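Lab notebook: predicted structure, single chain.

Context: the supervisor wants predicted structures on file for every construct in the current expression panel, including those that have not yet been purified. This is the next one on the list. No modifications to the sequence; it matches the entry in the shared construct table.
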Amino acid sequence: MRRSEYVSFDAVGLAELMAEGEVTPAEVETAAREAAQAVDPRINAVVETWPADHVPTPGSAPLAGFPS
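Prediction complete. Output recorded below exactly as produced.
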């Protein structure tokens, strides 16, 4: 998933894409990290990031698999 695709969806839309199998949680996480890294030098709002220890199965909850 390219960053331009990532930013065109809200959390619900991304969760739906994951539930449908169109993207994986790992792809969404990578896009989210890239988006944060791209804007943080200007907004200085990201304190820290860390990889998810457990990624729920997409579709098992409304926002399952979405990076938090």
